[in-house]
């Protein structure tokens, strides 16, 4: 029997803020095996959590900001091939937009260098540093007004109940 292929499920937070005339987005700089990279607050779906719980957790861990998702911007797939190892991973990303309601004084996840606010133009200008080719597509969809209601997603209670 062959092994069943499964994509790696991830979430990402698109967090805008108006800073005077500037529309800025919350981003992170992180260390990766390929060097320092730029990303949205993003990460893997963990066992026993919904997609919404995952994006709230990841945003807190990576930026120390309390995130409230308001809509699903889209679902995205990409394949990453590590230039170092040649390993292939297909990512299935669920991108949410929302707002931050508080910033906390806490350490950031291991490997996260800093959280920063950048304009779309600034993000566009440093594509060589993007961790994922999906960063721009998610932002472009957000800027185009693409939104789906959160109740489009359903998580059965059996997912969030721990077996322990």
What does this structure look like?
It is built from four helices and eight strands. A four-stranded mixed beta sheet has the order 5-1-7-6, sandwiched between helices. Strands 2, 3, 4 and 8 form a four-stranded antiparallel beta sheet that branches. It has one domain (8-152): Nucleoside Triphosphate Pyrophosphohydrolase (Alpha-Beta Complex), CATH 3.90.79. It is an alpha+beta fold and 164 residues long. The protein has helices at 51-63, 120-124, 134-143, 157-160, and strands spanning 8-14, 16-19, 22-32, 35-39, 41-44, 65-81, 88-103, 112-119. Belongs to the Nudix hydrolase family. NudJ subfamily. Pfam families: NUDIX (PF00293). InterPro entries: NUDIX_hydrolase-like_dom_sf, NUDIX_hydrolase_dom, NudJ.
């Amino acid at each position: 029997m062959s092994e069943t292929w499964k994509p790696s499920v991830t979430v990402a937070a698109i967090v805008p803020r108006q800073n005077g005339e500037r529309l800025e987005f919350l981003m992170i700089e992180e260390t990766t095996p390929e060097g320092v990279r730029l990303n949205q607050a993003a990460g893997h779906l963990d066992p026993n959590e919904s997609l919404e719980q995952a994006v709230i957790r990841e945003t807190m861990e990576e930026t120390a900001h309390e995130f409230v998702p308001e809509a699903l911007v889209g679902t995205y797939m990409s394949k990453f091939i590590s230039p170092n190892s040649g390993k292939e991973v297909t990512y299935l990303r669920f991108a949410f937009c929302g707002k931050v309601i508080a910033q906390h004084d806490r350490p950031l996840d291991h490997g996260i260098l800093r959280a920063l606010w950048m304009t779309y133009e600034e993000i566009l200008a440093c594509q060589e540093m993007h961790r994922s080719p999906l960063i721009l597509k998610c932002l472009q969809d957000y800027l185009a007004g693409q939104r789906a209601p959160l109740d489009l997603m359903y998580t059965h209670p059996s997912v969030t109940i721990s077996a322990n």
